[in-house]
Amino acid sequence: MTEATRREPGSPCWVSLMVHGLDATREFYGELFGWEFAPGPPRLGPYARALLDGREVAGIGLLPADRGLPGSWTVYLASDDADGTAESVRCAGGTVAVGPLDAGAAGRLVICSDPSGAVFGVWQAAAFAGTSAAGGPGTPVWYELLTYEAEPAVKFYRTLFGYEPEPDASDGPDHVVLTAAGRPALSVRGLGRDLPRDRGAHWTTWFEVADPDAAARRAAELGGRVLDTPRDGAGGRRATLADPEGAVFTVVRSSGR
């Protein structure tokens, strides 16, 4: 393993799904996105790396059986100093749930939640930079925080990573895009009373697909659910889905594809 290429702090660099049924989940996403799988770092317990053409896309790990936690996707944000970012999370009103801790030679990680309870990860790369397959079908292409109100969330994440906010009314009245080093990195959407009570504030991952309508039908055939039927929006045609364990994600055919 070699030293990872540095990513700009605040840039999304990895996504990981924690579930109760690892084999069934691998089968679902393998059929839906064409992923293949390889073992992950032994230190992380039962964990699989999802691959496209031999390149890492995402990770899938096993939840503790005795905690009753729901399956969910977690986005990891790049940091040059995981320990320093963890301290900033605490000072800004968030919570550090796991870490900082070393993931072998790969890097150093932290699992946090923001003041509204939305869970996210922090990754300080050493030998592993994160997702190496990008842009094509089956790869994560966007990340959005769904929360009650955008402004407090934007203030929190800006404190951590120095994002520059850009309000984007083209995709809703309380929608803000956060840029890192001048490039759009992720977005925050305030839903007010429309925020699902059973989930609360949470991050969502968008995966590129060639045909969102076909992907939604296939997900349902594989035991998942269609939460938001395919529709055209500012970022392209998209649908919101849930896998068989209830983990929510979005499929999108980005504008221009």
Describe this structure in words.
It holds the Pfam family Glyoxalase_6. This protein is α+β, with helices and mostly antiparallel strands. It has helices at residues 22-33, 82-91, 150-161, 212-221, and strands at 12-19, 36-39, 47-52, 55-62, 72-78, 95-102, 107-113, 119-125, 140-147, 164-167, 175-180, 183-190, 202-208, 225-233, 236-242, 248-254. It has two domains: 12-125, 2,3-Dihydroxybiphenyl 1,2-Dioxygenase, domain 1, CATH 3.10.180; 140-254, 2,3-Dihydroxybiphenyl 1,2-Dioxygenase, domain 1, CATH 3.10.180. It is built from four helices and 16 strands. The chain is globular and about 45 Å long.
List the helices and strands and how they pair.
Elements: E1 12-19, H1 22-33, E2 36-39, E3 47-52, E4 55-62, E5 72-78, H2 82-91, E6 95-102, E7 107-113, E8 119-125, E9 140-147, H3 150-161, E10 164-167, E11 175-180, E12 183-190, E13 202-208, H4 212-221, E14 225-233, E15 236-242, E16 248-254
Parallel strand pairs: 1-4, 5-8, 9-12, 13-16
Antiparallel strand pairs: 1-5, 2-3, 3-4, 6-7, 7-8, 9-13, 10-11, 11-12, 14-15, 15-16
Can you summarize this structure?
With 257 residues, the protein is an alpha+beta fold.
Protein traits:
17% helix, alpha+beta, 4 helices, 2,3-Dihydroxybiphenyl 1,2-Dioxygenase, domain 1, 257 residues, 8-stranded mixed beta sheet, single chain
